[in-house]
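Homework-ish question, so no full write-ups if that breaks the rules, but can someone show me the predicted structure for this set?
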Amino acid sequence: MKIIIFIIDGLGDRPNEKGETPLKIAKKPTMNRIAEEGICGLMNAIDIGIRPGSDTAHLAILGYDPYKVYTGRGPLEAFGLGLDLKEGDIAFRCNFATVDDNFIVKDRRAGRLDFETAKILEKEIDGLEIDGVKVIFRSKGYRGALVLRGEGLDYMVTDADPHKDNVKVEEVKPLRKEAEKTAEILNKLLKIIYNKLKDHPVNIEREKKGLPPANIILPRGAGIVPKVEKFYEKYKMKGAVICGTALIKGIGKMLGLDVIEVEGANGTPNSNIMGKAKALLNNLDKYDFFLINVKAADEAGHDGKFELKKEIIEKIDNMLSYIFENINKDSVYFVLTGDHSTPIEVKDHSADPVPIVIWGKSVRKDDVKEFDEFACAKGGLHWIKGEHVMRILLDLTNRNEKFGA
Ligand SMILES: O=C(O)[C@H](O)COP(=O)(O)O
Ligand SMILES: [Mg+2]
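A: Not a homework solution, just the prediction itself:
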């Protein structure tokens, strides 16, 4: 029996004044069919009241304790962007952002910078050297990964990203003595980058078109190469990841999962999600396990766009219809859920639990007929944590060990 975990990033939401969420009012016949044929519930990836990042949430859902294996978002983003890290490297997630001359953040995503412009600006950063420390930088749209390579570096530094607009870029501070040099290098690097990018021709062009210039990067999530048990060692299953964003690819690479690349899968609302569905079906017989992530609903949540989030969910339902025409209960257990909620009113992640449904031959089907935050609360799974997902699936596919004689 194969296992497919399908994660709609940022899926959950909070009811608006009409008591509706984008998921509840989206036209989603296939998601409702899966809920009707499966067993449903609510899930917090980490625990009740814990607001997860996509990184810690995916680790938990894959059965890894983030409190033990998580060493920062940076390395995961770097892996996902094709960078190999060496011992001593410090890696960061970065956003291309827009600041004014006083380093006040005007747009911490530089208008969700396009991929092509990001690649041009990437060349101004990648290859810099400061006080003997090499700077490596890769981008995928407004998102990027920064690696500092040199002597005497340490990942215990604070974020430069203030995580909101209209405040000053944070001065990077060391959290321990060993990190003083790293903090100093980063603060110098941001000033150098700002001076290189603020008058760059692509930014002059962007400002002429009324677009926010991408004139700085905002590092966050400093981390080092994590030591973690590979997925195959842990579960004796050959697995693959299908996704658009570097972070999830990076998690896959860190765990030794194959990353199935899909042309045009880019984590944005016009990502090639049907291409992801085709990639799954074309590779179905090659793997025991798949993790599929669709990112765009999370972006809509971050941008506070209710209608867009609803439309994206409807597009995903269409993608699921295609998948469900081509899989059957005799060979697949399918989990549909989210990694966290990204409520429109919050414009960031929240600890509101997400709906989850497990579909497959021997699940104890419940009375839930719709896939949303309210209906699934009445399902047979009740409430579970991310760490329970793989445990339940290993049991349903008769792969788990008996505890006791
Ligand atoms: O989209 C992502 O990469 C994260 O989920 C949110 O990061 P951001 O707030 O920096 O866009
Ligand atoms: Mg997420």
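Now go work out the reasoning yourself. Hint: The mean pLDDT is 97.
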